[in-house]
Design brief:
single chain, 743 residues, alpha/beta, 4-stranded antiparallel β-sheet, 26 helices, cell division, nucleotide-binding, transmembrane helix
Length: 743
């Protein structure tokens, strides 16, 4: 069955809606009269046993109640027109700068190729034409003689001779003589003109004109001498195998899926009405918008993608059925590409050679089936990438990290727990970096996690201390991130193969608790968590983490559980099935949370040398901006792991609000307990240097230290010693945060 046309279903849609043989106005259901008159009366249940299925019109025990409301069965013009979806006035490829650029680049590239192809073969073409020119000359002379001698009329004259029809023959011979005379004259004139022109050129014309003419003559003769099946110039491109997508092909493929409802609908004539818009060219492929029969959903088709591809006689990687997210569940958008997505040349990452990034703006992350760039905004989000081994997780994580590296204000903590060094180019820009599945690397990862976790508290305090007009939404904004003293710059923590961390005997639980807190609270505070895993089960990826993540990229996985762990609960049911990707679909996955709708995309491909180049550029930019810190700046890993501390906040943390005044030495001991790596050395000083150390440290904050009354911790005699007043510390914090806000 083929259908080359489509009908708009909204026109005369009443017929369509009557596929189920329902009469207009709705079915009439008999109600027992007793029920209407006397609700307490006993209902005669025998009438339900009316086995012939027909309603007796004359039965005076029943009244008829229409099920559908009275009124027009067809929608009014206004109702049907208002319900219509408007098609783009200007095609999508003309509206998007990216798409326009892609289209123009393609046209330019195509003609560049055609030109280069023929230019390289010019000597071959010239030689072939020269070799064929004698044959061409012979054909030309033969053709001219046949024309002059009116060879075409010979069979007719021969027939007159055969019939011995003298009158007819004489008439034909006379006609031919006239023709031959005229044509002979024309040919002689043409030969003479050509001879004169050639002689004139030979004697008086410029050499180039003579050469061009001779070449032209030889080329022309060579062209005329070419055998019909072997033209001189071959095509520079081989036409794509892909056939134009027709409604017939689509319907045939849908009909072959083994869905009973479709088969029933096809038998009733469902078909051309299925297409809600003409099948159009959309990027490097065809798009069909289809209303499936009642009861069939787009998901029913998506889960049979392999069979659909077979029905369309296309490779799986060309066939991309999707739900129309803004429409009903039975609307299918089928995009059929000219080329298998996995075979297409990966697009070049727009930031590979130049450009910088602000993580507050969307970054180019992937390309969809149609070659359009898929953007992703990392700020205020976290990302989870999952796939079975070897499908492109690390590459996908690396793109996000390369973008973060190109934001000079972003602080990167990169931990790759596979140990292959796939993220090693980032070492030159990362504040903390480690590669390996060993305990030391995992301990290093934990240090970064603890640091980021501490940052949560600090950042939350800074933000809550800012005046409302400076921070109206209680979250980091580009303006606040730019204020260096607030230290609210983007903080990116990435863990590749994070299952190694979560399943670690010693650190697994702590990692779970701290990362859950980070994922829940970090978004507003400028903290971005990026996780990649090849084992998305509940032991390897805590559910609290998989449930709270914002952006999800799921490459090929084996089963529904992994699919839903990465993409979110019910994703499989809703048609997002990363199980349908093939092993060839490396780098291709479903991206959820990056835009209003889920999309299929292939992450940009930047290999290790390419990543080195990007990171070298990022490092230069960071040095210029003065933001190269931590390991990248040559600080040792130990120093690097030293948590950033806030002395005033730390004092407030160790001195209870009920303690108005505390001796310096007691404060120092408590601080050393809170942060041994920072304040530990202070606590080891002698009894005079210890309080003096705190006095010196507090001087830059303008906090004066005086004699305060107190008692030793071991319960000795009370005395006056150097100490702080808690209110002075609180006042200093208020003053400092106020100043920062005003910066
Ligand atoms: N976007 C992409 N486009 C094309 N090929 C890709 C893309 N991403 C990854 N690949 C290919 O897939 C291969 C595996 O990628 P990658 O190392 O990222 O996989 P992985 O899932 O991290 O593997 P493993 O689980 O072993 O760590 C790469 O060598 C690369 O050739």
């Amino acid at each position: 069955m083929t259908h080359d046309t489509f009908d708009r279903p909204d026109i005369e849609d009443d017929e369509h809606t009557r596929d189920d043989d329902t009469p207009p106005g709705g079915e009439v259901i008999p109600f027992p009269r007793e029920t209407a008159v006397d609700p307490d009366a006993e209902i005669d249940h025998d009438q339900d046993d009316d086995t012939d299925g027909e309603t007796d019109q004359d039965d005076d025990t029943e009244v008829r109640v229409p099920v559908d409301p009275p009124g027009r069965s067809r929608p009014t013009w206004s109702e049907s027109v208002r319900g219509e979806q408007r098609r783009d006035v200007i095609p999508a490829w003309l509206r998007s700068r990216e798409a326009l650029r892609e289209q123009s680049a393609w046209v330019l590239d195509h003609y560049k190729h055609v030109f280069a192809f023929h230019a390289v073969r010019t000597p071959v073409y010239a030689g072939t034409l020269a070799l064929r020119s004698p044959l061409g000359a012979a054909r030309l002379v033969g053709g001219a003689l046949r024309w002059v001698s009116d060879a075409d009329g010979r069979p007719v004259r021969a027939e007159a001779v055969r019939k011995a029809d003298a009158a007819e023959y004489l008439k034909l011979a006379k006609h031919r003589d006239g023709k031959v005379r005229l044509r002979g004259t024309i040919l002689a004139a043409a030969v003479l003109a050509a001879g004169v022109l050639l002689t004139a050129l030979l004697l008086a014309g410029p050499t180039w004109a003579l050469v061009v003419t001779l070449l032209g003559v030889v080329a022309g003769l060579g062209w005329a001498g070419a055998p019909e099946d072997r033209p001189v110039i071959g095509p520079a491109v081989v036409k794509a195998q892909a056939e134009k997508l027709s409604s017939g092909m689509v319907l045939r493929a849908l009909g072959a899926l083994g869905i009973a409802e479709i088969n029933k609908a096809v038998a009733k004539g469902w078909g051309p009405r299925a297409f809600v818009a003409p099948i159009t060219r959309d990027g490097p492929g065809w798009r069909a918008d289809i209303d499936l029969p009642y009861g069939v959903t787009a998901v029913d088709i998506i889960e049979r993608r392999d069979r659909l591809a077979s029905g369309l006689r296309r490779p799986m990687g060309c066939v991309w059925p999707e739900p129309a997210y803004d429409q009903h569940a039975g609307r299918l958008v089928l995009w059929v590409g000219d080329q298998d997505m996995s075979q297409a040349k990966p697009a070049v990452w727009p930031l590979a050679a130049s450009g910088s990034v602000s993580l507050f703006d969307p970054i180019p992350y992937a390309t969809d089936q149609r070659g359009r760039v898929v953007l992703m905004s990392l700020m205020y989000a976290n990302m989870l990438i999952g796939a079975m081994p070897g499908m492109g997780k690390t590459f996908a994580l690396r793109i996000a990290l390369l973008a973060a590296a190109l934001d000079t204000t972003a602080e990167l903590h990169v931990w790759e727990l596979k140990g292959t060094g796939d993220l090693s180019p980032l070492e030159q820009v990362a504040h903390a970096y480690g590669s390996g599945a060993d305990d030391d690397t995992i301990a290093g990862t934990m240090d970064s996690i603890r640091y980021v976790h501490t940052e949560l508290e600090r950042r939350a305090k800074v933000i809550s201390g800012l005046p409302r007009d400076v921070c109206p939404e209680n979250k980091v904004t580009p303006e606040l991130a730019a204020k260096k003293r607030l230290r609210l710059h983007p903080l990116v923590l990435a863990v590749d193969e994070c299952q190694e961390l979560f399943t670690h005997e010693k650190f697994g639980k702590e990692a779970d608790t701290k990362l859950t807190a980070i994922i829940k609270r970090g978004r507003a505070l400028g903290i971005i968590l990026l996780l990649a895993t090849q084992r998305p089960d509940k032991d390897s990826l805590p559910t609290a983490i998989s449930a709270n993540v914002g952006i999800r990229f799921c490459l090929k996985v084996m089963g529904q559980t992994e699919n839903d762990m990465i993409l979110g609960t019910s994703s499989y049911k809703n048609g997002l099935r990363a199980t349908t990707f093939t092993l060839k679909d490396r780098g291709i996955g479903y991206l959820v949370g990056a835009g209003p709708e889920a999309s299929t995309g292939r992450s940009f491909y930047v290999d290790n040398p390419g990543a080195e180049t990007v990171c070298t550029r990022a490092r230069t930019a960071r040095i210029a901006a003065g933001t190269l810190t931590g390991q990248a700046a040559g600080e040792s890993a130990d120093t690097d792991r030293t948590p950033v501390h806030d002395l005033l906040a730390d004092i407030l943390a160790v001195v209870e609000p009920t303690e108005a005044k505390v001796w310096n030495e007691i404060v120092v001991d408590r601080l050393a307990e809170l942060r041994p790596d920072v304040y530990g050395p202070w606590a080891t000083l002698d009894s005079q240097a210890k309080p003096a150390q705190l006095t010196t440290a507090l001087k830059p904050f303008g906090v004066a230290v005086g004699q305060v009354w107190g008692t030793p911790v071991d319960g000795g005699k009370g005395a006056n010693r150097r100490g702080i007043t808690r209110d002075d510390i609180t006042a200093a914090v208020t003053k400092r945060d106020g100043n920062r806000a005003a910066d």
